[in-house]
C-alpha cells in the first residue's frame, strides 16, 4: 500500500468508529503514521477522561484500523 492508501484506510476505519465515540461525547483524530505501521491518534472530548479508553483503543480502534490496513502494528493515543 502507498502512504496515501494507508492514510485513507486509517481514516475510513476512524470514520467507522467515530459514531460510537460521538454517542458518548467523544471523538478521535489521526495524528501521525510512522514507518507505515505505527499509528498515533488523539482521543478527544469525553474519551480523554474515560476510565475504559485504553480498552476502547485496543479492542475497538486498533482492531478496526487493522481490519482496514493489516500492516499496522501498533495504535497509540497521544495527548
From TrEMBL:
Source superkingdom: Bacteria
Pfam family, one: NifU
InterPro entries: FSCA_dom_sf (IPR034904), NIF_FeS_clus_asmbl_NifU_C (IPR001075)
One GO term of the biological process aspect: iron-sulfur cluster assembly
GO molecular function terms noted in the UniProt entry: iron ion binding; iron-sulfur cluster binding
All residue ranges annotated as the NIF system FeS cluster assembly NifU C-terminal domain in the record: 10-76
Alphabetical list of PANTHER family matching this protein: IRON-SULFUR CLUSTER SCAFFOLD PROTEIN NFU-RELATED (PTHR11178), NIFU-LIKE PROTEIN 3, CHLOROPLASTIC (PTHR11178:SF25)
Family assignment from sequence similarity: Belongs to the NifU family.
Name of the protein in its database record: NifU family protein
Amino acid at each position: 500500500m502507498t502512504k496515501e492508501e494507508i492514510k485513507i484506510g486509517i481514516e475510513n476505519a476512524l470514520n467507522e468508529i467515530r459514531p460510537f465515540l460521538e454517542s458518548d461525547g467523544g471523538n478521535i483524530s489521526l495524528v501521525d503514521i510512522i514507518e507505515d505501521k505505527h499509528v498515533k491518534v488523539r482521543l478527544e472530548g469525553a474519551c480523554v477522561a474515560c476510565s475504559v479508553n485504553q480498552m476502547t483503543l485496543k479492542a475497538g480502534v486498533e482492531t478496526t484500523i487493522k481490519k482496514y490496513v493489516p500492516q499496522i502494528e501498533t495504535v497509540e493515543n497521544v495527548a
